[in-house]
Amino acid sequence: MNQHSRFNLPLCMAVEEDIFEHVDQTVFDYLPEIKGKKAIFVTEKFLNDTYPDTVSGICQDFGGAEVFLVTGADFDSASALAKRILIENITIVIGFGGGRVLDTAKYAAFISKAVYICLPTTLSNDSLASPFSVLGTEGTNRKTLPCKIPTAVIVDTSMILKAPVSQTYSGIGDTIGKYTAVYDWALSAKATGTRVDDFAYSIAQMCYDSVAHCDEKSVTNKGFIKTLSRALVMGGLAMEIAGSSRPCSGSEHLFAHAIEEYYPDIKISHGLAVALGAVGAANFQGRDDLNLIEICKKYGLDLNPASYGIDKDTFCDIWNRAAGTRPDRVTILNDTDLNKDWLCDIYDRMQG
Ligand SMILES: [Zn+2]
Question: Can you give the CATH number for the domain in which 52 is found?
């Protein structure tokens, strides 16, 4: 056993136009041993109604797979799905959707030890190939649960181009956030006397570079959609290799968590909240934030906090609460004096 046999990698990773028309061929090329095995197709009502032909085509290709509709991404529905997979001797779990559907399918496949095939319909964040599922537990509480990454990740660029552009913006924001995440990870390693995993670090850095320095900064360009798909999947693999979310999640994510936990009425996607957080985090780290603002502008992301109803006082309060959302995480916030003038200055520049 070598030092790297502790992690898994997907056997299949394909990004192609209209590939959802032949998912079966793609999967069986890589995994001939599951051909003819029983499958279940996990999605939600909205997608089932919006793409009936795609859903029925894939179900037919997998031996008449039944459709399981996810209603809430919580632990109980993932457990109920796992129970069904085990009782009905299902071998293949196909997840078709965005974060909620994919987290439910991924966790159910993990606890039932089924083969998980991930078919994202949006590129909103890097959880699609990560070794974690975020599921509701009690009331509004959610928990990040460790699980196994997908066996196959198949992205259809035509499907992504049909999704609302706000979802793609979110995926860009989540990727941009790696600029400050890897820095915080290295800082934390130094402070705690541990080491970053060099490969996970490099992969996360490359995810950021691929999006930040992409020649084609257009969310409707197929070439860019391929780049973003790979960046999000590779972000998941960086977490798998590191054995934690640290390569992809630093103080910019703590800012996003503080919005989720303390200001649930603020309507902002995960990735955009992360991008907003990355600007502040870059400043605290003593690095250039103009770059981040410029890159986001070119893609069409709006980093003005006021656009999301975040006024100056709220902005300061979010930053002051950020470190407390994950007190065990060492980030630049541990060494930062969050004085109001500085935060207001950052806020003003984000409005620019
Ligand atoms: Zn994220």
Answer: 3.40.50.1970
% of the chain residues with pLDDT over 70: 99
Q: How many structural domains comprise the chain? A: 2
- Rounded CA-CA distance 269/297 in Å is 16
44 alpha carbon to ligand 1 midpoint, in Å?
22
Cα 287 to averaged position of ligand 1 atoms, centre (Å):
21
> How far away, in angstroms, is 124 Cα from ligand 1 center?
9
Is the pTM for the entire model greater than 0.90?
yes
Q: Residues 140-182: pLDDT tens digits?
A: 778 889 999 999 999 999 999 999 999 999 999 999 999 999 9
Q: Which residues surround ligand 1, an ion (CB under 5 A)?
A: 174
CA of 258 to the centre of ligand 1 (A): 13
155, 33: one domain:
yes
